[in-house]
Amino acid sequence: MDFHSHKTQLIATAVGASVATAGLISAYSAYTRIERRKNLTDEVHRSLSTHKTSLDVNSLVSTPVPTPQPDEFAGDYDEELIKEQLARNYAFFGENGMGKIRRGTVVVVGCGGVGSWAAVMLVRSHATAGLTDVGTPKVKCIERTLKQISRWVEVDARIDIWRKEQGGDLLEGADWVIDAIDNITTKVDLLKYCHDHQIKVFSSMGAGAKCDPTRIQISDISSTIYDPLARSVRRRLRLQGVSSGIPVVYSTEVPGDVKLLPLPEDEFQKGPVKELGVFDDFRVRILPVLGPLPSIFGLHVATYILCELAGKPILNPLPIKNRKKLYERLLRDLLHRESKLTGETINKLPIDEDDVALIFEDINRGRSVIPPHNVPSRPVLVRWDIAKPLTIDNCAVMEFAEAEKHSKECGTLEEPLKRPENIWGKDVLHVVDRRAEELRREREWVM
Prior knowledge:
447 residues; alpha/beta; 47% helix; 6 strands
């Protein structure tokens, strides 16, 4: 290579300039990394300055990977403490189910926005409270965590209960109110107050005793179906002149075969049961809850309100299939059959469209009570035992031809003929009784 040629000198100059530029870029990148790390260290120190901690901040921000230290929570736990923290999960799954969960192993690949929530909800039943918080008011746990996450957010945590008599004290200046109350009376009072005072409110319906996340959705309170808590709240609001205009998150899943846990006998010896609660009129027994379900409800609420606040609302929440016309037809047909059965003109039945949806969809799964329990091509509701009043637990789903046979052979109130079990057999009677029991159990969640 001729180092004296003009071409060679130009190439050498270009290479030298490139090397110099790369060096400058590398040096700048190193400098900015050092500055970012220094700023992070300063921010972490500032963030922790207001909180007592034994955490070594330098070990978090220094380059070398710190030597793993023994987990402060490693070792044996007090079993009673564990069961107190996970009481609602134990109520939902039972001892056997929780034993399997605690012996299980789950691998989470990808711990970002989804994976982190999945990991957290696998091991806890509350968003912020941990083992050291057993006995601490939930609102204080939330306050502490929110301040740790976002120091610029103003948090006003109060250990109190909302009452309509002092309604404005806690709601003044609110753009949105989130109703996550368990008590029906207080829930309805809050929704009515917000409606009357033009305060935007989003209500969470019942997440207890449910486990199917595919049945969760957002809708107006007037469009809710199947959910027993939503049904009760909707009816009470309607009696007070509020029929719509409140967005809710709810589940169309029928509560599973779990019950409110009874109080131990020694608790009754302490005095009146109502005095055992934190507040008057609030349930003191444990409601079985599968931890992730309430979190999904809460995430629905937060997402909806964030979109509203940002001016990009969710305009048309996708409802599940609307079978309102089917329920209207079933109710009209039942009214006609009851008029024939009683021999009188009936204008209104003791059950409504909500009850029809409950009987047809939730309890009978859209199938006839008569074997082989097919999905009727022309479904009909009939009073099962004509010797008893028409109620939601004395109403059966049948195919049209089966219903015609049932009405003909049972007779009328004036001239009763056969008992229903003598027409269809003992097995069908057991099916009807079992579904009536499901209805009674379902109503316990509302009362």
